[in-house]
DNA sequence: CGCCGGGCTTACTTTTTGGTAAGTTATTGC
DNA sequence: GCAATAACTTACCAAAAAGTAAGCCCGGCG
C-alpha cells in the first residue's frame, strides 16, 4: 500500500488512475489536447451529456492535479480559458491507446466511429 | 453516443474503459500478464486488500470479456487456473504506461516504489 | 475427528459517483 | 426592458461500486 496525501493506493497504476479516473476526465483532456484556449461552455458543448456540475467538478480536480490550467480573462463579466499543461499532454499516448483500442473494438462489432469525430476522439 | 449491448457510451475511450475500469481489473491483468496458471488464492494473496467477493466478480467479468480464461483442473476438489488471453495481452502497453507514469509521479514526490515489486507492478 | 485451504456464494451496508434542477451575477443584443 | 449567454453554485436524490462478514462444499492432514 502506498500512502500519499492522506489517501492509500494499492499500486502505481492506482495512483495514475486517481488523476484520470472517472467518466469525463479523459474526454476533457482529449478535447483540450486538440483545442487551445477553450471557454467553459465550449468544452461543455463538446461533451455530449455532461452536466455543468460534473464539468465544474472535473475541471477543478484536473486543475488541482496540474493537468490543465485556467486563465481568468475578466472578472466583471466572468470569462475564463482552459488549456492543457505539459503534464497533461504527457498523458496523450494513453488517450491515443484507449481511443484506438475502443475504435478497433467497435469496428470488429460492426460500428464505424470515424464519421463526425473531429472532437473528443 | 454509441450504443452497444443495451449500454450507451460517450466515446471509444468509454468503451475501452468498460473492460478495464474499476479498482482491480488492471491489477489482476497485470498480475496475469506476468504469471501463468494462477489459482484463485494465488491471485488473491498478491492483491493486497481485495475481498474475495470483488475478486470473483472481476474475474468473471474479465472472463466474459475474454481478457482472461479459466481452466477447471478438477471438480471434486474444485481447482482452477487463470491465464491471460491474447486479447488481454494486447492491452499490456496500457498497463506499462499507467504503471510507469505512477512510479514516476511517486518518485517525484519522494516515494520509491521499486523495492519488493516483482508483483502487480 | 476437527481444522485448514481452495474456490467460491450470499446477504447486507456503506461509500462513491453521477444526475436533476434551480438559482446567481453580470454583460450583450434586440 | 427582457431574454440570452457565460461561468458557475447549491441542494437534493438515485444508482453504481465497493466493503463486511458469514457460510458452503470438498478433500487432505495430523
Automatic annotation (TrEMBL), chains A, B:
<dbReference type="InterPro" id="IPR002577">
    <property type="entry name" value="HTH_HxlR"/>
</dbReference>
<feature type="domain" description="HTH hxlR-type">
    <location>
        <begin position="11"/>
        <end position="110"/>
    </location>
</feature>
<dbReference type="InterPro" id="IPR036390">
    <property type="entry name" value="WH_DNA-bd_sf"/>
</dbReference>
<dbReference type="InterPro" id="IPR036388">
    <property type="entry name" value="WH-like_DNA-bd_sf"/>
</dbReference>
<dbReference type="GO" id="GO:0003677">
    <property type="term" value="F:DNA binding"/>
</dbReference>
<dbReference type="Pfam" id="PF01638">
    <property type="entry name" value="HxlR"/>
</dbReference>
<keyword id="KW-0805">Transcription regulation</keyword>
<keyword id="KW-0804">Transcription</keyword>
<keyword id="KW-0238">DNA-binding</keyword>
<protein>
    <submittedName>
        <fullName>HxlR family transcriptional regulator</fullName>
    </submittedName>
</protein>
Amino acid at each position: 500500500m502506498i500512502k500519499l496525501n492522506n489517501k492509500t493506493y494499492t499500486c502505481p497504476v492506482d495512483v495514475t488512475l486517481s488523476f484520470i479516473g472517472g467518466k469525463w476526465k479523459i474526454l476533457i483532456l482529449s478535447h483540450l489536447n486538440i483545442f487551445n484556449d477553450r471557454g467553459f461552455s465550449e468544452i461543455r458543448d463538446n461533451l455530449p451529456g455532461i452536466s455543468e456540475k460534473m464539468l465544474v467538478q472535473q475541471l477543478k480536480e484536473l486543475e488541482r492535479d496540474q493537468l490543465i490550467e485556467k486563465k481568468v480573462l475578466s472578472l466583471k463579466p466572468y470569462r475564463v480559458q482552459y488549456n492543457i499543461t505539459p503534464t497533461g499532454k504527457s498523458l496523450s499516448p494513453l488517450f491515443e491507446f484507449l481511443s484506438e483500442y475502443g475504435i478497433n473494438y467497435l469496428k470488429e462489432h460492426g460500428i464505424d466511429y470515424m464519421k463526425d469525430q473531429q472532437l473528443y476522439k
